[in-house]
Specification:
Chains A, B: Keywords: DNA-binding, Repressor, Transcription, Transcription regulation. Chains A, B: It holds the Pfam family Peripla_BP_1. Chains A, B: One of its GO terms (molecular function) is DNA binding. Two copies of one chain form a homodimer. Chain A is 45% helix and 16% strand. Chain A is α/β, with parallel strands linked by helices and 336 residues long. In chain A, the strands form two sheets. A six-stranded parallel beta sheet of chain A has the order 2-1-3-4-5-11, with helices on both faces. In chain A, helix 12 links the parallel strand 8 and strand 9. In chain A, helix 1 crosses helix 3 and helix 8 runs parallel beside helix 9. The mean pLDDT of chain A is 92. Strand 2 of chain A pairs antiparallel with strand 2 of chain B. Chain A binds a DNA duplex (16 and 16 nucleotides) through helix 2 and helix 4.
Chain lengths: 336, 336
Amino acid sequence: MATISDVARAAGVSPATVSRVFNGGRVTAERAERVRKAAADLGFSPNRVARSLRTQRASVIGLLVPDVENPFFASLARGVEDAARRTGLSVVLCNTDDDVEKERGYLGIALAEQMAGVIVAAASRTHTDLSALVARGMPVVAVDRRPRAAEVDAVTVDNQHGGEDATVHLLERGYRRIACITGPAGASTSEDRLAGYRAAMRDAGTPDEQTRACTRHGDFRAEGGHTAMRELLALPTPPDAVFVADSLMTVGALQALREAGIEPPGFGVLSFGDLPWASLVRPPLTTVELPSYDLGSSAAELLRDRLAGSGKPLQTVVLRTVLQARESTAGPVPSG
Amino acid sequence: MATISDVARAAGVSPATVSRVFNGGRVTAERAERVRKAAADLGFSPNRVARSLRTQRASVIGLLVPDVENPFFASLARGVEDAARRTGLSVVLCNTDDDVEKERGYLGIALAEQMAGVIVAAASRTHTDLSALVARGMPVVAVDRRPRAAEVDAVTVDNQHGGEDATVHLLERGYRRIACITGPAGASTSEDRLAGYRAAMRDAGTPDEQTRACTRHGDFRAEGGHTAMRELLALPTPPDAVFVADSLMTVGALQALREAGIEPPGFGVLSFGDLPWASLVRPPLTTVELPSYDLGSSAAELLRDRLAGSGKPLQTVVLRTVLQARESTAGPVPSG
DNA sequence: CTGAAAGCGCTAACAG
DNA sequence: CTGTTAGCGCTTTCAG
């Protein structure tokens, strides 16, 4: 691997000049040309590790998500990666599985690796600790979920509004005993979507104890949705519709319904977050669409601004959801 | 950020000793303890960038995939990440969009960033050029797709066997005029799956011209599957089943069938590659499951061995597919 | 077993 | 505009 000195020697200039050519310093056109030619001949490209050590900042950012197999986070990751690429940044992918310990490990690596910054969908609203990074001056952007006490920029979705929208839609379509399968108790997204659901139910005059009895916490995976749905169906007075706060959990819930011989829209099903194959599921699913890709790209842009030294006060960008009504919530009595 | 010298000073030893403590060199227990305590007090963790520069090898590997939003690659990425984590490696995620230029850019970054190694699902069998990395001694593992001329380790799927399995299954279920929609003519995955289909048909005594008449090439997208299926249905003697060599194309094919008022399993449908929601499609789809996660973890382990200096000759690991029989291939006569 | 010293490749003052 | 110089933080001979 050719170094900057090799190029300097070949071009008959000093290493500093070579560096300047590659970093936009003032160099006469003629010399610059000679350097570029020498570099090309030697197949030289600047060693980023050495540069990082010298400048004390890297061109790598960390992205911590619970699980990239979740289509929502895959799309978010894609948004981050595309935006980062435009800025010349590389993205290190870290799956935390919503495990605070695992997350802590990755945050430590981000520090040790001197990453330029970190975008994190926090594993826990209360236990995720970003203070070490903030204290060291490393820019952090919270995405999707915002850890409670963190002094960081954030890009989130209006989950409460989305949950309320979803529930109101189900009510309007005539469902009465509407259940909710939300995510882990710690996560802010779970809580907010649940809060939206609760608010809408309360507005509709549903007694709080019924609402509570019809609420389950899952794990943002198909498995959790399946278990939760089975529990709900086993209730003395089972629900007639369900608002599932995550697309993967919806898959599990649908499976449980099918096993029980129950079909939408007789039983209403509304998913928070797109199913990639929504059009193939029968009947087509009503969903609350999340701007997952934009969430990622916005976060990366916010981080980029911070890296560029934007002195703005901390900001939180909130993106809106869009309700996509389809047949799975057509109404409690099968139309026909 | 505390440095190794800070710790050395605090512990009253030399930087070299601190380094030894953190890298398993021989140090007396008493001194080691003092160093560890000082390190803990200062919140010290070794600067990986400096270490990389010094040792000339990083603890970061690159992962190049076409698109992490494709569930197959998301799962593969997860497999890589999990295995890398166990080895103390971090993964940089790169989406190439099957664009050779983009891929080239990322390979250059891998070089400049002095990454420890690279795992790549090549954008092109013929145009992907891994030689620069190989020449510089950077370990490379090809995954899923193997660029033709590359001297690298590889982990692939036994596509031919999978295609044969699929076709035999359809034959056993009583379908007779089995069609095949495979991918682009250039891709090795397309060709291999098609070869498996042909072999099975030949073994079953089907005349070659029928097999050929019932074969179509698509583009690995829903659109291509849709077009191909329509053509097949328009044949003088249309098929009674189809083996679709890609999950997205299956989506298109199913849509075409639905438009024609045809339903599985009267018309058999078998998809190569999981649809994440396979069990939700009505009727549930029979699929040839690809070991996407294992593909990733195996690749990462192979890379780990290379990094550890395994002097073995280059190897190619071939993983088997698993046929998951469901209702969409229950048999040519609608049961019931 | 331990410390001193010499860089890994690059950039950022500082003179010239 | 250009070259010289001095490290960034760490590991690794080489003496002791």
